[in-house]
Structures are given as C-alpha cells and as structure tokens.
Amino acid sequence: MRIALLSTNPQLYSTRRTLEAGEAAGHEMILVDYLRCYMSIASHRPTLIYQGESLEDIDAVIPRIGASKSIYGVAVVRQFEMMGVYTANTSQAISRSRDKLRALQLLSRKGIGMPITAYAHSTEDIDGVIELVGGAPLVIKLLEGTQGIGVVLADTNQAARSVIEAFRGLNVNILVQEFIKEAKGADIRAFVVGEKVVASMRRQGAPGEFRSNIHRGGEATKIKLTPEERSTAVRSAKAMGLRVAGVDMLRSNHGPVVMEVNSSPGLEGIETTTGMDVAGKVIEFVAKDAEARRGKTVQA
C-alpha cells in the first residue's frame, strides 16, 4: 500500500516512528510537507501538487497536522478526500477536535463526562461565569492554546476576574472550567486507534504545577484504565469522528472527565512509557480500514 504521512518536520519522533512502522509492515511510505503542497481546485479533477509533481496513486493518508497550521493542513486533507483518498482522520474530524468549544459541545451532547465549563463574550458577565463553574479555584483556558500554554489556575474569584478581563481585553476567546482538585495535578492519556484503546499512561505534573503536560516537566507512568475510562476514551474519539486520537482525562470524584481530544497525538511519550508499538498499531489499522472501505466503494 502507498501511504502518505503529512508532517512538516521529518526529525520529529512521531514522524520517524510512523515512517519506520509503515516500512517495516511492507508499505511504501511517502513523507509530505503539507505546507509545501498546492492545490488545483478544478471541476471534476481536484489535484494536489508537491515538489512539482501531482500526488497520485496514494492509497491512504495519515495526517499529523500542527495546531498552529490547522487551517491549511485541514484544507490539504480535504483535498485528498475530494480526490477519493482514504484519510486516517477526516478533515471534518480534525476541525472538530481543534475547536475546543465545539469539541466540548459535541462531548456534552453525547453525555460524556467533562468539567463544568462556561463560555461568554462580555466582561459584564464575569461574575455569572465564575458562579456557574462553582467559584475559585477555577481554570481559565485560551481556546487556541496547546501543550498547557494559555492555561491559568485562579485561586480566588478576584484573581479569576482579573485574568478574564485581561484575556478579553486582548480580544482572545477563553473557556472557564471547574478545577478538579482531586486529580492532584495528574491526568490520563488514552491512545485510541479505531475503536480500541491501544495504550495509556498517567502524566503527573511537576511539583507545584497543576498542568500535567510532559512538555512542562510532567512525568509519565504506564497505567491500566478502568472499564469506564476505556469506554469514555473510545466514545470521545467517536464523538469527534476521529479514528486515531489521544484522549486526555482526569480522575474526578464523579468518574472520568475529558479535558481534550487530540487528533495528532504524539508517539514519543506513550511509546517510551508503555513500551507499546503504537505506531505499528496505527499503520496496521490504517491499512486494514483503507482496504475495507475501498472494497465497499467498489461493491457500491
């Protein structure tokens, strides 16, 4: 099978491991910098050009789209879809997961546990927003933030007002969420492939740090999920329409609550921590799913 991996950085661990796993499984792997692709949006014959040549005879695409490059990256994935090429994660699913507010609304509709969350536009409604999530301590998040950047813990209602006013003064969109104190600065990353959790880890924040991101000094350990956590992770990925996803959850007093569903989850932390060949699981699933869907298309 000829599989294109969309990534802007060939040196990234996730990029290298995906290419290695694909080649080890006997597939022809092609690395495509999606920012260097350009498109011909012509009637009946949509095409993608990369390094001066048309990208043709591609059987499947694995998108690894950076959060800051979502708009163009999603457009490239959509173009592949217009060409009839299978994509591990669809353009619509990636867009859903990248829009934090929309993602939470979709999870809410499916009855999936998550922190009490408030969203408002006017600073005149700050007191109502704070009250809605149960008061301080509470968490304030930039909608466009990644890897823990743009996430603030406010210990008092006055501190929360000041942070919200500051963010809104910069005309940036924010979410206000209840603080899950009992999580004690730790979260769970469940790596979902298809409709299965193939690996999971617990990430503990550095001392004095409520954010558990490994990029911010957190430490990871292998963990066994409860049946409820496993089900929550799979249902969350499905709610986004993602076939490959990293689902971040907290253990609260009322069960698992989902913080984020990531459409391009990193492989280094999860593989190093669990010893699992997660890249191999992704390649295996993509090859089987692409072949199965192509068979259905031919029959139709």
From TrEMBL:
Signal peptide location: none
Pfam families xref list: RimK, Rimk_N
Residue ranges of every copy of the ATP-grasp domain listed in the record: 104-287
Single GO term (MF): ATP binding
GO biological process, one term: translation
Superkingdom of source: Bacteria
HAMAP family: RimK
Record's protein name: Probable alpha-L-glutamate ligase
